[in-house]
Amino acid sequence: MPSMNIDFYHFFYLISESYIDNFQTNGEVSSWSELSDTVMAEGKSKSSFVLFKSNLFRRAVLFTMLNPQPCGAAFAGIRKIVDLDISGYEAISLEVRGRGQYKGYEFVLRHKGQAGSDAPSYVYFFEVPFDFEVVRLPIKQFKPYLMGNYYDKGEPLDTSRITSIGILAYGGAHLPKKQQGAAALEVNWIKLE
């Protein structure tokens, strides 16, 4: 019998990978929709999510333009309706790099079909690197936010019933860091670990 050059840990890792989207292979941007601040008169922002293919690579690119209100309120991004049980995982990982005027993003989880401004979003803020790297977002560190403010009165995130995910560039109305202008977030894949 030929010897195998893979140990048990690596075998388990290979079969346990769970991609939410792998844009390098077959992930499509059509399952994502825009989620941007287009309501406020002073703070219209915009996003576009496209598949970028060449002879050498295939990836998705989130283009965002933040035009904040005077207080810094703005957001532009994307969301995807899902039906995920992430309770057995420790993190959401993305292989990404960023270009443009800012590097701050938030990854958003919603549960139980909740939507709209009266239900909290569970958020993890992260910075993107200049060169491609894996950014790991620990699921236990997602915090509830309501209308851009930290919201400690909400129920805990039900990780067994995640119904939407999103990636947003933020203006920073209630955050110490303020952002504006244009940027691009290149995404190779998003997966659960």
From TrEMBL:
GO molecular function: unfolded protein binding
Organism superkingdom: Eukaryota
GO BP: NADH dehydrogenase complex assembly
Domain (NADH:ubiquinone oxidoreductase intermediate-associated protein) ranges: 22-187
InterPro entries: Galactose-bd-like_sf (IPR008979), NADH-UbQ_OxRdtase-assoc_prot30 (IPR013857), NDUFAF1 (IPR039131)
A Pfam family annotated for this UniProt entry: CIA30
Parts forming coiled coils: none
Family stated for the protein in its record: Belongs to the CIA30 family.
The protein, known as: NADH:ubiquinone oxidoreductase intermediate-associated protein 30 domain-containing protein
Organism: Aromia moschata
